[in-house]
Fold:
Amino acid sequence: MSNKTRYFVVTAATILAVGLTTGLVASYMGLPVAFSQAAGPDELQYVPADAAVVAYANVREVMDSNFRERFRQFEPDTKERDEFQSKTGVNIEQDINSVVAAMMPGGGDAQFGPHSGMLILARGRFEQSRLEALAIEHGGQAEDYNGKRLLTHANDAGSPAMAIGFLEADLIALGGYDAIKKSIDAGGGNNVVSNTEMMRQIHDIDAANAWAVGRFDAIANAGRIPNEIQAHMPAIQWFSAATHVNGGVSGVFKAETKDDESAQNLREVVRGFLALAKMQAGSKPELKTMVDSLQLSGDGKNVAISFSLPSELFDALEELKKLEQR
Structure:
């Protein structure tokens, strides 16, 4: 990437990284739309109704957690993060409150790049005038769309490819140019909150401070799963992953299959994996607590595996890390 484009897109890349490192990237029943509207963060009003995958991280809670604090000393050099702050005025640790990410159907576009179907909504403190001046300085363009300010960057053909949109005083959107415009349009009412099936998945895991839900085919068709593995997996329709970070970490992974038989087959696969993991962890006390916390559950078309890792486990891992560094 040239210096001309680096600082225009670095905001999107960094905020996406925050979302991923707090427990993102990566299902299930039915409630009326009127009830489902209470689920999820307010930012969902800017997520298009046809989003295939939606993820959320309460960055403020994770950054302020005891879990994050205990591992702060092991973080890599902060030189690049400090440089980012000096250029953009954004302190990743203090200024970002939450991140919502969504993937549009079809993923990326050959003309506009692999991330053109990705939308990221970041809520926090931003200096719009500073970001706009920085973008224009490095080759960006400013325009207005339906009353919202956009900063765009063109692809090699000269067409707008990536963009930053200022949706509210403390909310910005980052991603593909078309995805940002769809996000602004969604704010008018045709958003994911009207997607009954997606909202019913979100309702089930809304209490977590980091989660992701979506259609399994969106991940498979985007090439995230090798064909050899897909061919041997039961027909999964929806997936979800939710974690809660405080002193320790707890979470649950769920899958909804097309029928009861597929779910039973998937449970058998997971049961075999857990048995193998527990056997291998038997001689490794530092892993035994982690593996023993894995619990398989679910009935009908649903399969779930949950885990709970207490803070004491991370105390042991922290001591082990210190010994390795000596």
Summary: Confidence is low (pLDDT under 50) at residues 1-37, 109-114. The chain has two domains: 3-26+41-192, 225-325.
